[in-house]
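Researcher: We're teaching a course module on how sequence relates to structure. For the next exercise, students receive a sequence and then see the predicted structure as C-alpha coordinates, so they can try to spot secondary structure elements on their own. Here is the exercise chain.
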Amino acid sequence: MRFFLKTAAAVCRTIPAALACAALLLPAAAAEDWEFSSTVNYDTGRYGAKDRVESVYIPLTLKLKYYDADFAVTAPYLRQSSRGQVTRVGGKPVRINTGNAGAENTAESGLGDILLSAAYTLKLDGPRSFDLALAGRLKLPTASKSKGLGTGEMDEGAGLEFAKEVTPGLTLLSDGYFTIIGDPDGIDFNNEVFLDVGFYCPLRKNIGLTVLYETRSAILDGNADPRCVSGTFSYSMPGGAQIAGGVTLGMSDGSPDLGIGAGFITRF
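Model: And here is the predicted structure for the students to work with:
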Protein backbone atom coordinates (compact mmCIF):
# COMPACT_ATOMS: atom_id res chain seq x y z
CA MET A 1 0.00 0.00 0.00
CA ARG A 2 2.82 2.41 0.84
CA PHE A 3 4.41 1.69 -2.55
CA PHE A 4 1.07 2.38 -4.27
CA LEU A 5 0.63 5.71 -2.50
CA LYS A 6 4.19 6.80 -3.36
CA THR A 7 3.68 5.78 -7.00
CA ALA A 8 0.33 7.58 -7.21
CA ALA A 9 1.86 10.70 -5.68
CA ALA A 10 4.68 10.67 -8.23
CA VAL A 11 2.19 10.28 -11.09
CA CYS A 12 0.01 13.09 -9.77
CA ARG A 13 3.01 15.44 -9.68
CA THR A 14 4.31 14.41 -13.13
CA ILE A 15 1.17 14.33 -15.29
CA PRO A 16 -0.07 17.91 -14.70
CA ALA A 17 3.41 19.32 -15.35
CA ALA A 18 3.85 17.23 -18.51
CA LEU A 19 0.47 18.27 -19.92
CA ALA A 20 1.17 21.92 -19.11
CA CYS A 21 4.50 21.73 -20.96
CA ALA A 22 2.75 20.16 -23.94
CA ALA A 23 0.41 23.16 -24.12
CA LEU A 24 3.38 25.48 -24.58
CA LEU A 25 4.60 23.44 -27.55
CA LEU A 26 1.29 23.45 -29.44
CA PRO A 27 0.81 25.82 -32.39
CA ALA A 28 -1.98 28.38 -32.18
CA ALA A 29 -5.45 26.85 -32.44
CA ALA A 30 -8.26 27.96 -34.72
CA ALA A 31 -10.90 30.28 -33.28
CA GLU A 32 -13.53 27.52 -33.07
CA ASP A 33 -11.26 25.58 -30.68
CA TRP A 34 -11.86 27.97 -27.77
CA GLU A 35 -14.64 27.62 -25.17
CA PHE A 36 -15.78 29.90 -22.37
CA SER A 37 -18.14 28.66 -19.69
CA SER A 38 -19.54 29.71 -16.35
CA THR A 39 -22.05 28.43 -13.80
CA VAL A 40 -23.69 29.90 -10.73
CA ASN A 41 -23.78 27.28 -7.97
CA TYR A 42 -25.56 27.56 -4.64
CA ASP A 43 -25.15 24.90 -1.95
CA THR A 44 -26.20 24.54 1.65
CA GLY A 45 -25.39 21.97 4.35
CA ARG A 46 -24.12 21.33 7.87
CA TYR A 47 -21.29 18.89 7.06
CA GLY A 48 -21.68 17.11 10.38
CA ALA A 49 -21.66 20.34 12.44
CA LYS A 50 -24.56 22.11 14.19
CA ASP A 51 -24.79 25.28 12.11
CA ARG A 52 -25.70 25.54 8.45
CA VAL A 53 -23.20 26.77 5.85
CA GLU A 54 -24.35 28.48 2.64
CA SER A 55 -22.09 29.07 -0.36
CA VAL A 56 -22.22 30.63 -3.79
CA TYR A 57 -19.51 29.41 -6.17
CA ILE A 58 -19.13 30.96 -9.66
CA PRO A 59 -16.30 29.51 -11.76
CA LEU A 60 -15.22 31.22 -15.01
CA THR A 61 -13.47 28.73 -17.30
CA LEU A 62 -11.52 29.27 -20.52
CA LYS A 63 -10.71 26.08 -22.43
CA LEU A 64 -8.53 25.43 -25.47
CA LYS A 65 -9.32 22.33 -27.52
CA TYR A 66 -6.56 21.10 -29.82
CA TYR A 67 -7.13 17.82 -31.66
CA ASP A 68 -7.58 15.20 -28.91
CA ALA A 69 -6.22 17.40 -26.11
CA ASP A 70 -7.76 20.20 -24.10
CA PHE A 71 -6.33 22.71 -21.62
CA ALA A 72 -8.37 24.84 -19.22
CA VAL A 73 -7.97 27.52 -16.59
CA THR A 74 -10.74 28.27 -14.07
CA ALA A 75 -10.91 31.42 -11.93
CA PRO A 76 -13.81 31.22 -9.43
CA TYR A 77 -15.63 33.75 -7.29
CA LEU A 78 -16.73 32.41 -3.90
CA ARG A 79 -19.06 33.72 -1.21
CA GLN A 80 -19.50 31.67 1.95
CA SER A 81 -21.60 32.22 5.05
CA SER A 82 -20.59 30.20 8.14
CA ARG A 83 -19.20 30.27 11.68
CA GLY A 84 -15.77 29.21 10.45
CA GLN A 85 -16.32 25.44 10.45
CA VAL A 86 -15.85 24.95 6.69
CA THR A 87 -13.17 25.82 4.16
CA ARG A 88 -12.84 25.11 0.43
CA VAL A 89 -10.49 22.47 -0.95
CA GLY A 90 -10.40 22.22 -4.75
CA GLY A 91 -13.68 24.10 -4.98
CA LYS A 92 -15.47 21.71 -2.58
CA PRO A 93 -16.53 22.54 1.02
CA VAL A 94 -14.75 20.58 3.77
CA ARG A 95 -15.48 20.71 7.51
CA ILE A 96 -12.30 21.52 9.45
CA ASN A 97 -13.96 21.92 12.88
CA THR A 98 -17.43 21.93 14.45
CA GLY A 99 -17.63 25.71 14.52
CA ASN A 100 -17.52 28.22 17.35
CA ALA A 101 -20.89 28.44 19.09
CA GLY A 102 -20.04 31.93 20.34
CA ALA A 103 -18.95 33.21 16.94
CA GLU A 104 -21.23 35.22 14.70
CA ASN A 105 -22.38 33.83 11.39
CA THR A 106 -20.34 35.88 8.91
CA ALA A 107 -20.17 36.00 5.13
CA GLU A 108 -16.80 36.11 3.38
CA SER A 109 -16.24 36.51 -0.34
CA GLY A 110 -13.46 36.84 -2.88
CA LEU A 111 -11.36 35.00 -5.42
CA GLY A 112 -11.34 31.25 -4.98
CA ASP A 113 -8.52 28.86 -5.84
CA ILE A 114 -7.53 28.99 -9.52
CA LEU A 115 -7.64 25.57 -11.17
CA LEU A 116 -5.48 24.43 -14.10
CA SER A 117 -6.44 21.25 -15.95
CA ALA A 118 -5.44 19.32 -19.04
CA ALA A 119 -6.55 16.09 -20.67
CA TYR A 120 -5.59 13.92 -23.63
CA THR A 121 -8.28 11.62 -25.04
CA LEU A 122 -7.59 8.24 -26.60
CA LYS A 123 -10.41 7.24 -28.98
CA LEU A 124 -11.01 3.60 -29.89
CA ASP A 125 -13.21 3.27 -33.00
CA GLY A 126 -15.25 0.28 -34.10
CA PRO A 127 -17.96 -1.84 -32.45
CA ARG A 128 -16.20 -1.63 -29.06
CA SER A 129 -15.45 2.08 -29.34
CA PHE A 130 -14.98 4.25 -26.26
CA ASP A 131 -13.17 7.41 -25.15
CA LEU A 132 -10.53 7.31 -22.42
CA ALA A 133 -8.82 10.52 -21.29
CA LEU A 134 -5.67 10.90 -19.22
CA ALA A 135 -6.13 14.05 -17.16
CA GLY A 136 -4.15 16.22 -14.76
CA ARG A 137 -5.14 19.04 -12.42
CA LEU A 138 -3.34 21.72 -10.39
CA LYS A 139 -5.02 23.88 -7.75
CA LEU A 140 -3.24 27.17 -7.17
CA PRO A 141 -3.68 28.61 -3.64
CA THR A 142 -5.16 31.98 -4.62
CA ALA A 143 -8.13 31.90 -2.20
CA SER A 144 -7.84 33.69 1.14
CA LYS A 145 -6.94 31.28 3.94
CA SER A 146 -7.82 33.83 6.64
CA LYS A 147 -11.36 34.14 5.27
CA GLY A 148 -11.83 30.36 5.12
CA LEU A 149 -12.07 30.39 1.32
CA GLY A 150 -9.08 28.05 0.82
CA THR A 151 -6.23 26.20 2.50
CA GLY A 152 -3.39 28.36 1.18
CA GLU A 153 -1.68 25.25 -0.24
CA MET A 154 -1.32 23.73 -3.70
CA ASP A 155 -3.09 20.47 -4.67
CA GLU A 156 -2.00 18.13 -7.50
CA GLY A 157 -4.12 15.42 -9.09
CA ALA A 158 -4.28 12.97 -11.98
CA GLY A 159 -6.90 10.56 -13.22
CA LEU A 160 -8.85 8.89 -16.00
CA GLU A 161 -12.12 9.95 -17.65
CA PHE A 162 -14.14 7.26 -19.47
CA ALA A 163 -17.14 7.48 -21.83
CA LYS A 164 -18.79 4.76 -23.91
CA GLU A 165 -21.91 4.99 -26.08
CA VAL A 166 -23.86 1.82 -25.34
CA THR A 167 -26.77 2.74 -27.62
CA PRO A 168 -27.59 5.92 -29.61
CA GLY A 169 -29.69 6.94 -26.60
CA LEU A 170 -27.32 6.12 -23.75
CA THR A 171 -23.67 6.96 -22.99
CA LEU A 172 -22.02 5.56 -19.86
CA LEU A 173 -19.69 7.90 -17.95
CA SER A 174 -17.09 7.32 -15.26
CA ASP A 175 -14.15 9.32 -13.87
CA GLY A 176 -11.50 8.47 -11.30
CA TYR A 177 -8.93 10.83 -9.73
CA PHE A 178 -6.20 10.69 -7.10
CA THR A 179 -5.28 14.08 -5.62
CA ILE A 180 -2.41 15.07 -3.34
CA ILE A 181 -3.87 17.59 -0.88
CA GLY A 182 -1.51 20.26 0.43
CA ASP A 183 -1.28 20.52 4.24
CA PRO A 184 -1.61 23.96 5.86
CA ASP A 185 0.04 24.59 9.22
CA GLY A 186 -1.64 22.61 11.97
CA ILE A 187 -3.77 20.37 9.72
CA ASP A 188 -2.83 16.96 8.30
CA PHE A 189 -5.06 16.34 5.28
CA ASN A 190 -5.40 12.90 3.70
CA ASN A 191 -4.90 12.54 -0.02
CA GLU A 192 -8.17 12.16 -1.92
CA VAL A 193 -9.60 9.38 -4.08
CA PHE A 194 -12.54 10.49 -6.25
CA LEU A 195 -14.91 8.39 -8.35
CA ASP A 196 -18.08 9.15 -10.26
CA VAL A 197 -20.28 6.94 -12.43
CA GLY A 198 -23.40 7.76 -14.41
CA PHE A 199 -24.88 8.27 -17.83
CA TYR A 200 -25.89 10.81 -20.47
CA CYS A 201 -28.99 10.39 -22.63
CA PRO A 202 -30.62 12.67 -25.23
CA LEU A 203 -34.27 13.28 -24.33
CA ARG A 204 -35.29 15.09 -27.50
CA LYS A 205 -33.69 17.30 -30.13
CA ASN A 206 -31.01 19.52 -28.52
CA ILE A 207 -31.95 18.46 -24.96
CA GLY A 208 -29.97 15.98 -22.87
CA LEU A 209 -29.85 14.64 -19.32
CA THR A 210 -26.72 13.73 -17.34
CA VAL A 211 -27.03 11.78 -14.07
CA LEU A 212 -23.97 11.12 -11.86
CA TYR A 213 -23.24 9.46 -8.55
CA GLU A 214 -20.08 10.88 -6.93
CA THR A 215 -18.04 9.66 -4.01
CA ARG A 216 -14.73 10.84 -2.62
CA SER A 217 -12.64 9.85 0.37
CA ALA A 218 -12.67 12.20 3.36
CA ILE A 219 -9.51 14.29 3.43
CA LEU A 220 -9.72 14.82 7.19
CA ASP A 221 -9.93 12.01 9.76
CA GLY A 222 -13.32 11.98 11.50
CA ASN A 223 -15.23 13.47 8.55
CA ALA A 224 -17.74 11.45 6.55
CA ASP A 225 -16.86 10.53 2.96
CA PRO A 226 -18.66 13.04 0.69
CA ARG A 227 -21.27 11.31 -1.48
CA CYS A 228 -23.93 12.84 -3.69
CA VAL A 229 -26.13 12.29 -6.75
CA SER A 230 -26.78 14.96 -9.38
CA GLY A 231 -28.98 15.49 -12.40
CA THR A 232 -28.29 18.10 -15.09
CA PHE A 233 -30.39 19.11 -18.10
CA SER A 234 -28.58 20.70 -21.06
CA TYR A 235 -29.90 22.49 -24.13
CA SER A 236 -27.77 22.97 -27.25
CA MET A 237 -28.58 26.13 -29.17
CA PRO A 238 -27.91 26.88 -32.85
CA GLY A 239 -24.30 28.00 -33.30
CA GLY A 240 -22.87 25.60 -30.71
CA ALA A 241 -23.68 27.43 -27.47
CA GLN A 242 -25.21 25.43 -24.63
CA ILE A 243 -27.12 26.23 -21.45
CA ALA A 244 -27.59 23.86 -18.51
CA GLY A 245 -29.16 23.60 -15.08
CA GLY A 246 -29.26 20.95 -12.43
CA VAL A 247 -29.71 19.81 -8.83
CA THR A 248 -27.36 17.93 -6.48
CA LEU A 249 -28.55 15.97 -3.45
CA GLY A 250 -26.13 15.07 -0.67
CA MET A 251 -26.04 11.48 0.58
CA SER A 252 -23.71 11.91 3.56
CA ASP A 253 -22.67 14.47 6.17
CA GLY A 254 -19.57 15.18 4.09
CA SER A 255 -21.62 16.73 1.26
CA PRO A 256 -23.95 19.70 0.97
CA ASP A 257 -27.57 18.78 1.67
CA LEU A 258 -28.65 20.54 -1.51
CA GLY A 259 -26.96 22.17 -4.47
CA ILE A 260 -28.50 24.11 -7.36
CA GLY A 261 -26.63 25.32 -10.42
CA ALA A 262 -27.16 26.93 -13.83
CA GLY A 263 -24.70 27.97 -16.50
CA PHE A 264 -23.64 28.18 -20.12
CA ILE A 265 -20.92 27.25 -22.61
CA THR A 266 -20.08 29.32 -25.67
CA ARG A 267 -17.54 28.67 -28.44
CA PHE A 268 -15.62 31.35 -30.33
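Model: If you want an answer key for the exercise: Residues 2-25 form the longest helix (24 residues). The chain has one domain: 2-267.
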